[in-house]
Amino acid sequence: MSRLRSKQLHCDSILLVTTVVLVLIGLVMVFSSSGVYAMEKYNDAYYFLKRQVVWVFLGTVVMLLAREMDYRGLEKHTYYVMGITFLMLVAVMVPGLGKEVGGARRWLMLGGFTFQPSELAKFALILFIAKSLVKRSDQLKNFAYGYLPKLIVLGFFFVPILYQPDFGTATIICFVTFAMLMIAGLRSKFLIYSILVVVPLFVLAVMNAEYRIRRIVAFLNPWEHESNSGFQVVQSFYAFGRGGIFGSGIGSSSQKLFYLPEAHTDFIFSVIGEELGFVGALIIISLFSILIWRGFIIAYHAKDSFGTHVAIGLTLLIGIQAFMNMGVTVGLLPTKGLTLPFVSMGGSSLVVLMFSIGVLLNISGKLIQN
């Protein structure tokens, strides 16, 4: 028995330790990037840090619970999770229930805290895709019975999320869904047909919102729009440039002093690049690479199809979101408003992602026990 436990601990420790390190780095950087702003706005330099500590505690609790439960029970309750998530997405639009910030309705008021249902939607959709692939994997090459139903369900989540508007999350759930289906054996022609349909819809969604047009224009030439739509990205460039190889030191960022908007959320990677330099940024990228590697190892060795597909989906979610966040800060992608997993200030994202890590640990644990 002791030998079994030792193997199980060794199997889980790589993923667990990587996650813990990312979360701890996140706590340090949230305080470093938000202290001045919090003091100015709330007269409390620790305001955001204290809230993030609460979310880390809640995230740790749900991660441990997910680690101890039987992940196969999620397959039985997939439709309940989807239904609750969809109702929450609709409730966000109801005045008095949803909270509007910066022109976007993405949050539900829960006591003194807010929760973002679109974060739960990512997890719920992964469960659905995994469950459907287990039941009808042989029909995936059939458009009407195997592929179209999944697109319809994706649409039920995509539309309300886009309406909030939350274009970044809407993009992520599309990428994760198509990636899961491709790995499961989706016909390439179905993917091509989907691209031919999605690209015009994507262009239409961008053209329908002036702020999205400005973001695309700023992405193409941020320096030309440095004083308006390209301001965030240009300030991010300055942060990385000032950081150099080894950084200016923790707490020494100048860009966070009201130059770089959302320094503790969407652009926290820029502050890391400034204070910890290229070396610090490389460490963050390496940690995510280890996490992704570990997730795919768990998926590859899972003893049942549901565990494999869930592990693939959750790993893709973390990897794609991390890439998109970091890609925005270095100018590879247009600004989208996404957090850096486990690092940025953001309670809903942190709790859902830590629960996801718990599920991955659970799948890994079941593998060793089997």
How is this structure best summarized?
With 370 residues, the chain is mostly helical.
What does this structure look like?
The chain has 370 residues and is mainly alpha-helical. The protein has one domain (2-85, 115-369). The chain contains 14 helices and 3 strands. A 3-stranded antiparallel sheet has the order 1-2-3, with helices on one face. A hairpin with a 2-residue loop joins β2 and β3. The radius of gyration is 21 Å and the shape is globular. Residues 1-11 have low confidence and may be disordered.
Round the mean pLDDT to the nearest integer and report it.
88
Strand order in space, largest sheet: 1-2-3
Whole-number count of domains: 1
Quaternary state of the chains: single chain
What are the secondary-structure elements, in order, as H or E?
A: HHHHEEEHHHHHHHHHH
Low-confidence stretches: 1-11
Number of strands: 3
**What does the radius of gyration come to?**
21 Å
Structural class: mainly alpha
- How many angstroms separate the termini? 13 Å
**SS field, number of helical segments:** 14
Principal-axis shape equals globular
The helical percent reads over 70%
Largest sheet: 3 strands, antiparallel
Residues in β-strands, percent: under 5%
